[in-house]
Amino acid sequence: MPASVRRSLLFFAATSVVALGPAFAQRTQLKPGWNLFSPQQDVQVGKQAAGDAQRKLPMCNLPKADAYLTQLGKRLTDHLNTNGVEYPWEFHCVNDRSINAFALPGGYVFVNRGTIEAADNEAELAAVMAHELSHVALRHGTNQATKAQAAQAGVGIFGAIFGGSTGGALVTQLGSFTAGGVLLKYSRSAETQADVMGTQALYDSGYDPRAMAQFFEKLEQETKGKNPPEFFSDHPSPDHRVERVNEEIDKLGGIPANARRDSADFEAVKRQVMKLPVVKKGVPRADAGGSAPPGPPPAPSESMTAYQGSGLSLNYPANWKQLGGDENGAVFGPESGVVNDGSGHAALAYGLTIGSVMGQGTDSGGLESATQGLIKELQKTNPNMKVTRQAQSVKLNEQPALSTYLANDSPGGGKEADWIVTVARPDGMIYFVCTAPEGEFETYRKACGAVLASVRLR
Ligand SMILES: [Zn+2]
User: Fold this and answer.
1) Cα 413 to Cα 233: distance, rounded to the nearest angstrom
2) Per-residue b/e over 313-326, b at no fewer than 16 CB within 10 Å?
3) How far apart are CA 59 and CA 273, in angstroms?
4) Distance (Å, rounded) from C-alpha 305 to C-alpha 330?
5) What interhelical angle do 122-137 and 188-204 show, nearest 10?
6) Is the entire prediction scored with pTM above 0.85?
7) Is residue 204 a contact partner of residue 130, using CB atoms and an 8 Å limit?
8) What is the Å distance from ligand 1's center to 191 Cα?
């Protein structure tokens, strides 16, 4: 690892220790991550998707259930740290027996009847809702969208580094995303954050905070070896869930005396919801807009197709497509390499992303620091991204370049490998990111190598 990166990591570690040192019982402080959207855009995007969801999902149409969810939700949001943003919280009951719930950016919360039926008491339902509300407060939906945009065309990275105003374009593009798309697919680190903040909200609202881990653990135990609840497909279970929740409870000062666990209102609404007619599944869900066939895409073909961009030309495998791009970059990969998780959400799991970072002219020394800057920027939104092989000097179209290997979480689940090649240009740097799940990486590394060998810079 280059010295300057190591130094800044040490600095980071040191400040973290100082922050935690004196107050051992201090609650964890959480803040939203990198986001190209404003909180107002969260509301705009969420409202649109919520309207879509209400049209497409079977709703309970039970005013008492919606009123109860609203009352319970308000009790939690009154104690939720939104970093000063006021969201227009809305709560809806969905007539779907699968155990799931989702919250759209801006605070539009949908709770399946199945979740109410599976909860043994109000604290368990409050826990699911507190977890969802924390995703809203931490703005995980548009943070994910920001990341997907960055992965797609490098435009997000470009905007973040150079202050380009890309937010408006992103909203337009997101307008076509339906509920359950990129806005609702969370990483394990986002899950831990939602658990921790949700535990705080439960505690502050007078609920037994242990319900946070208990409900999810119960679901996992009950469904071992069977179909896991839908909840876990959007919310992958983080490691050490119970331990992390217990740790936070300790920081908060332990389980409060007289913590609320149940209410007559909850039991009454649960009985009502259980009497609702069951809506037959098979109607497409709001998030079933995906078109990618299941399974890995076909191996990259050896015959190539030519591409002419403004700053470079190259050849790419004939069975790949250009999946995106603008004046700053392009994305190539198999059509089904855009992982869709059945949602219309676009994150590249297989393929090659090309982007540019414009700035002052980059000499060979500058290339190293520009490459580090790019990797750091990627790591901000991919906290599990790690360098597995340090930058090594290579040549790209006779120009000095750097080759770095990384590991990361794959958007399709499991681990992926990334190979980043950066090359200096008179007006900045061009980068190539080759991505594939770990198990198939060698095949894709070869295909990307063939593409890189064909690159002609202008
Ligand atoms: Zn979650």
Assistant:
1) 10
2) ebbbbeebbebbbe
3) 11
4) 14
5) 120
6) no
7) no
8) 5
Question: Which H helix or E strand runs over 432?
Answer: strand 428-437
Helix (H) or strand (E) holding 39: helix 39-56
* Residue 232 alpha carbon to ligand 1 centre in Å: 8
How does pLDDT run across 281-317, given as a tens digit for each residue? Answer: 433 333 333 333 346 889 999 999 999 887 889 999 9
Here the contacts of 241-247 (C-beta below 8 Å, separation 24 or greater) are 241/192, 241/195, 241/213, 241/216, 241/217, 242/213, 242/217, 244/192, 244/195, 244/196, 245/195, 245/196, 245/199, 245/209, 245/210, 245/212, 245/213, 246/210, 246/213
Q: Separation of 357 CA from ligand 1 center, angstroms?
A: 33
For residue 211, how far is its CA from the centre of ligand 1 (angstroms)? 15
Residue 130 CA to residue 142 CA, distance in Å, equals 19
Task: Name 273's bridge partners.
Answer: none
CA–CA gap between residue 168 and residue 13 (Å, rounded): 36
Total Cβ atoms within 10 A of residue 274:
11
How far does the centroid of ligand 1 lie from the alpha carbon of residue 217, in Å? 14
Centre of ligand 1 from the C-alpha of residue 396, in Å: 42
- Backbone φ and ψ for 344, nearest 5 degrees, come out as 80, 10
pLDDT of residue 327: 62
Residue 234 Cα to ligand 1 middle (Å): 7
